[in-house]
Amino acid sequence: RFDVEVIGGGLAGVEAAFRLARMGFSVGLYEMRPERRSPAHRTHLLGELVCSNSLGADQETSPAGILKAELRRLGSPVMASADRNRVPAGRALAVDREGFARDLTDMVSSLPNVTVVRREVTSIPTGPCILATGPLTEGEMAEALRAVAGGEDGRFLYFYDAASPIVTIDSVDMSRAYRGSRYGQGEDYVNCPLTREEYLAFWEALVSARQAPRHQFEEPRFFEGCLPVEEIARRGVDTLRFGPMRPVGLPGPDGREPYAVVQLRQDDREGRLYNLVGFQTNLLWGEQERVFRMIPALRDAEFVRKGVMHRNLYVCAPKVLDGYLRPLGAHRRDLFLAGQITGVEGYLESAAMGLCAAMFMGCVLKGLELPHLPPETALGSLLRHLREARPEGFQPMNVNLGIFPPLEERIRDRRERCARYFRRALEALEAFLRENPHLDTAG
Ligand code: FAD
């Protein structure tokens, strides 16, 4: 009935559906919510952000900024919605969570050749299909994915990912908190300081607090970039002070840096909700309130969302995928994976893999050769990483300079170096689009 079926209306699915529609195809976008909800999603909206409301840094001096610029250039609906729903967050691009997802839902649902079908899909369709069911894929679809990934032998993987709690700003004791971004760059964050004694008592409580049970058959494998705060604390009494509670560059009103500090970042457009930055956690909900209220400014805080932790599925891309996001085990030209399950990590990286899957699918359907995205671009680098990374110990990958081909000359200054990567990436993308004008569907 549709030219393409896209399964999963998350960041990757929405990006893919939008792009395929722009290329002139009819798309069925299947989303199981609200009929069935993953343990982390809360709404029926497409493109819901399950944890932080930050999409990362947004300058040309950061690798995440390179990816954002490429997505903007390619007309990404996720970026368009993020730009329209921005909230203050220093140099990061953070969004009003609900406004972002609502905007994205409206954008995609209003396209005449996209039909949003609200139901759970339990097997892989036999026609052209992009699977974008996300890291929380469960049940029969998880089994179907495991089958195309080739079963048990290190091809179908998981780690644990956690989300941070959110509090209302009215319930934060501002007499014990102060505003300021690190190194004096603005006023966007609310900082909750702790003295040495308060910190040590908090640390003791955190490492001994009770955690939510996990299924017994699941080993706790964490992703280093998103460790639960209690797990970081267990590594040593000071590890938090070098991580999410780092006080450096955050002097208080008296001009002195506190012993430790918890930062709160705005989570909605009105500025009523704030999340605890880097405080993703798997503590039991009652324990979260007990322990986090030991932070003086949060003594009477109202926790409107508790932290949660979930199994995060992905495939071992270098073994499972063909370099164009197609699972080798399926022996099909018209079945692509997209999003976090491909082995990338992060909201925009997931959206980017939706965009690439759609681009490849479009070429298959038009009988064109599959394009080779230049490795100098963030998109090309992510794809190259999925193709060429060592399969042993493969972990999902954020965009970072390490996955780009090195520059020809050595540049010491990190920001200048990154800016050079940025310019090279956008030039390479423009050259690619000049050679493949049919893929330039922005605007
Ligand atoms: P999703 O956005 O999860 O979309 C998948 C969609 O498919 C969902 O809407 C789901 O309801 C639907 N679906 C699933 N199965 C079916 C089915 N069988 N039939 C129909 N529909 C189905 N990344 C960050 O950058 N920052 C973070 O703070 C962050 N926190 C995370 C916290 C947790 C708990 C998890 C699990 C991941 C987190 N990630 C984070 C990683 C990742 O960026 C997000 O999970 C991102 O949403 C992945 O995008 P996606 O499109 O692949 O999947």
Lay out the secondary structure:
Blueprint: E1 4-7, H1 11-22, E2 27-30, E3 54-57, H2 63-73, H3 77-84, E4 86-87, E5 92-95, H4 97-109, E6 114-117, E7 129-131, H5 139-149, E8 156-163, E9 166-168, E10 178-179, E11 190-194, H6 196-208, H7 229-234, E12 260-266, E13 273-276, H8 285-292, E14 303-305, E15 308-315, H9 317-320, E16 335-337, H10 347-365, H11 378-388, H12 414-435
Parallel strand pairs: 1-2, 1-7, 2-6, 7-16
Antiparallel strand pairs: 3-5, 4-5, 8-15, 9-13, 9-14, 10-11, 11-12, 12-13
The chain binds flavin-adenine dinucleotide.
- The unreliable regions are none
Backbone structural class = alpha/beta
Bound small molecules, deduplicated: flavin-adenine dinucleotide
Order the strands across the largest sheet as they lie in space.
10-11-12-13-9-14
Computed CA radius of gyration, to the nearest angstrom = 22 Å
H/E topology pattern: EHEEHHEEHEEHEEEEHHEEHEEHEHHH
Shape: globular
What is the overall pLDDT average? 92
Strand content: 15-25%
Distance between the termini: 28 Å
- Helical fraction equals 25-40%
Please summarize the sheet with the most strands.
6 strands, antiparallel
Number of helices: 12
- Tell me how many strands there are: 16
Structure description:
With 443 residues, the chain is α/β, with parallel strands linked by helices. Helices cover 31% and strands 15% of the residues. The protein is built from twelve helices and 16 strands. A six-stranded antiparallel beta sheet has the order 10-11-12-13-9-14. Strands 6-2-1-7-16 form a five-stranded parallel beta sheet, covered by helices on one side. α3 crosses α4. The longest helix is centred in the C-terminal third of the chain and has 22 residues. The protein is globular and about 65 Å long. The two termini are 28 Å apart. The mean pLDDT is 92. The structure holds flavin-adenine dinucleotide (FAD).
